[in-house]
Specification:
The chain is of the alpha/beta class. The protein is about 30% helix and about 25% strand. The longest helix has 15 residues.
Length: about 270
């Protein structure tokens, strides 16, 4: 039995993972069946490597993963960072100043580069529930003291969609801005996306975009859907992603990835 795609690209949060950060047995079995039939599975996540590694290890995942919103290509089996793109800190500082001049003070966090890079958070930054470690900072200079992959920004009065839109209008010529989840608006190096990281990883695997199916749930997955031959949005996905998806499946809580993979296996 052959599988119609050579590469299955899955986002993590809101897509492969349920709300408790687990992966259902049904979804694990569907991925195992698809890979046994000749496909490769690649995780493509906004999370940097330190926040992704424990999930990959739990999956028994040995292949490549695209982390940090496309900034990092990581070899899970070898625990090795193969490529890493960093944010120009001078440009990011200018962008942050321009944006705060437009909307007022922001709460900021940053993902430091490297296999063991910390996420550092300023006072007032609202963290998601969960076990992921962060390091608080008070001195603004600390934000720029080591290489970064990205910044996270929050505003006390603007919702995520509005903050993303205003940030793009204000500093879109200096940096890229994406909305990656509830309370997660990110500033990235200009031109960086999940699609750039995925294309790098796919080249290493000898796989083309025309041979790829991608699953996601947030606007930061739009470039990945644009690159892949077939984009599948979860039922819980943001409307912007649903608008460009080729297909909408069940939610992450109801095995949406498995629903699609099982159907493709039946047709194979």
């Amino acid at each position: 039995m052959s599988f119609p795609y050579r590469l299955i690209a899955t986002d993590l949060d809101g897509t492969l993972l349920r709300s408790d950060e687990s992966i259902s047995e049904r979804t694990r079995d569907a991925l195992a069946a698809a890979t046994a039939a000749g496909a490769a599975h690649i995780v493509v996540t906004g999370r940097a490597v330190p926040w992704t590694r424990h999930i990959l290890d739990d999956l028994g995942y040995q292949g490549l993963a695209v982390c940090g919103q496309g900034a990092q290509v990581y070899h899970a089996g070898e625990h090795k960072l193969l490529t890493s793109v960093t944010l120009d800190r001078q440009l990011a500082g200018i962008a942050l100043s321009k944006l705060e001049a437009e909307v007022g003070p922001l709460a900021v966090a940053a993902s430091r580069d490297g296999l063991d890079g910390n996420v550092i958070v300023s006072p007032g930054y609202q963290l998601q529930e969960g076990p992921l470690p962060v390091v608080p900072f008070d001195d603004p200079a600390e934000l720029w003291s080591a290489p970064l992959n990205k910044l996270y920004i929050q505003h006390p009065g603007l919702d995520d969609d509005t903050l993303t839109r205003v940030a793009r209008q204000t500093v879109g010529g200096l940096v890229d801005v994406v909305m990656a989840g509830a309370g997660i608006v990110e500033i990235l190096p200009l031109g960086l996306s999940k699609a750039t990281g995925l294309s790098l990883a796919a080249r290493r695997l000898g796989v083309k975009s025309t041979q790829t199916i991608a699953f996601g749930d947030m606007p930061n997955d739009i470039p990945m859907f644009g690159w892949a031959a077939h984009g599948v949005a979860m039922a819980n996905a943001h409307d912007e992603l649903k608008a460009v998806a080729h297909e909408i499946t069940a939610s992450n809580e109801h095995d949406g990835i498995a629903v699609v993979l099982e159907e493709l296996m039946r047709r194979a």
